Amino acid sequence: MKDSNTASRITATGTIEKIGITTFQYGTHLLKAENKTYALKGGSINLDQYLNRKVTIKGGKISGYPLEGGPEFIDVTLVKLY
């Protein structure tokens, strides 16, 4: 039996960037992975300290996203330098 919460968990590796002007209006940072981009919300984690660094993030997908062709929206719970 699969826990429904497990399906919303995600682990991804890439480079964290500050969000500039975008067509979607959510998230504070982006994670640029090899073939995918994620919008991020750090919550209690200050994502600015990881700008332009390669990291692995863990978090949960925020339901109701993506919007308007934007990226998946992740509530980050852990950041690990790569």
Descriptive keywords:
five-stranded mixed beta barrel, mainly beta, 5% helix, OB fold (Dihydrolipoamide Acetyltransferase, E2P), 1 helix, 82 residues, 5 strands, single chain
Describe this structure in words.
With about 80 residues, the protein is mainly beta. It has a single domain (about 5-80), classed as NigD-like N-terminal OB domain (OB fold (Dihydrolipoamide Acetyltransferase, E2P), Beta Barrel). It is built from one helix and five strands. A five-stranded mixed barrel has the order 1-2-3-5-4. Strand 2 (about 30-35) and strand 3 (about 35-40) form a beta hairpin. The longest helix is centred in the N-terminal third of the chain and has 4 residues, at about 5. It starts with a helix and ends with a strand.
Secondary structure tally: strands: 5
CATH architectural name: Beta Barrel
The CATH homologous superfamily is called NigD-like N-terminal OB domain
The overall pLDDT, averaged over residues, is 91
User: Could you give a short account of the major beta sheet?
Assistant: 5 strands, mixed, barrel
Strand share of the residues? over 45%
SS content category: mainly beta
- Helicity level, as a percent range? under 10%
User: What is the number of independent domains?
Assistant: 1
Shape: globular
CATH topology category name = OB fold (Dihydrolipoamide Acetyltransferase, E2P)
CATH class: Mainly Beta
| Rg, Å, rounded | 12 Å
Walk me through the topology.
Elements: H1 4-7, E1 9-18, E2 29-33, E3 37-41, E4 54-61, E5 72-81
Parallel strand pairs: 3-5
Antiparallel strand pairs: 1-2, 1-4, 2-3, 4-5
